[in-house]
Amino acid sequence: MAEQPKGTTIILFSGDMDKAMAAFIIANGAASFGHDVTMFFTFWGLNALRKDERVPVKKGLLEKAFGKLMPRGVERFGLSKMNFAGLGPKLIKHVMKKHQTASLPELIEMAKEQGVKLVACTMTMDLLGLQKEELIDGLEYGGVGTYIGDASERNVNLFI
Amino acid sequence: MAEQPKGTTIILFSGDMDKAMAAFIIANGAASFGHDVTMFFTFWGLNALRKDERVPVKKGLLEKAFGKLMPRGVERFGLSKMNFAGLGPKLIKHVMKKHQTASLPELIEMAKEQGVKLVACTMTMDLLGLQKEELIDGLEYGGVGTYIGDASERNVNLFI
Amino acid sequence: MAEQPKGTTIILFSGDMDKAMAAFIIANGAASFGHDVTMFFTFWGLNALRKDERVPVKKGLLEKAFGKLMPRGVERFGLSKMNFAGLGPKLIKHVMKKHQTASLPELIEMAKEQGVKLVACTMTMDLLGLQKEELIDGLEYGGVGTYIGDASERNVNLFI
């Protein structure tokens, strides 16, 4: 089976903490396994790449509203289930610490260190009014063409 | 890597506007890239293929209720997040127009023009009581076997 | 195209009845088609593998709370849409019986009979405090490495 290219792409569409965790755990696992890995962050998932702090950039009113309504980074994500108005994520973080599981920010750092390619969807940036200054460092920028180009050469392609 | 077949299948399970947009953007991107593309519409995603207008067909009570409770076509879909009782989709449509992004009905037309194969899940049609007359033109009809047959020959297979 | 390995993996992350049904229908379809099939149950999806009855095991307080808040098995799953406080799943089960569609417990049995490999995510078991005694028989246990190992050799890899 050596003829087949091995590799992974993950589209992170969702802006939920649990789904982002799953995405980064799979990405890191695949990278350890020797796969080329690309993560493509689109729609709500793009918020995973936002900086923690407020970044002063010039924006229209609607873009400002979007920016405020959406979470700045994974530390502010909620759960897709059992969120309980923010209590759920705290409980999960608590049990993760207890079991010495890597936190989401640590998983992102690990992904960068392992050479996982993190791509911010430029169409989403346009629509939601998010600017490069507001996103973390070490990203690439691209659209659906970038995604398809990588996915075409891989066999593990997930939409999360 | 020429030995590997290139191609895309997308299962649209979700009935959310944002996820349907992602599905059609990827499908159109893959088709432009030269992929054979199949989209398989199942469960709530099947509603993306419903005609906009009410179609008079004979149905049982339960099927009538399902038909009324579920949206007729993508224009009536809500968002998976920040729906705000229907305000969210309006805002998104507004910014899409502003950025001259193709609307969801335009993306569906584009997919047809590019030869993307649109398959309505017949099991879902049976369960929810949706009939061919209620769905848009230019569809194929099939079950899980149709999906697996196509996915087996492709490498980019997504569930949305 | 004989050079390409054919096979399917499905990550069931979601704990919704409709998504679990989709996952098992695809898994069974792929197995009938001759694919090697692995299903990996993680996060909320792990609840699909819980026994129906309460199993007396020793647990901490938090693990007890998680165990009670999450559904014991697929028969207690809700719908991702139109759940209507539990009425939705009953309606769906009703129409499924009317159309003689296999129920979710039957689909799980079928998957076992067809040799679908069912893997319980051990990291999730640790985090949520679920123990082997609480899960149904006939499972394998593994982490992300187990998943990547199988997905690397397959071309249909879905995240549900």
TrEMBL record, chains A, B, C:
The chain crosses the membrane at residues 20-44. Signal peptide: none annotated. Keywords: Membrane, Transmembrane, Transmembrane helix. InterPro entries: DsrE2-like (IPR032836), DsrEFH-like (IPR027396). It comes from the Bacteria. The keyword Phosphoprotein does not apply. This is Peroxiredoxin family protein. It comes from Novibacillus thermophilus.
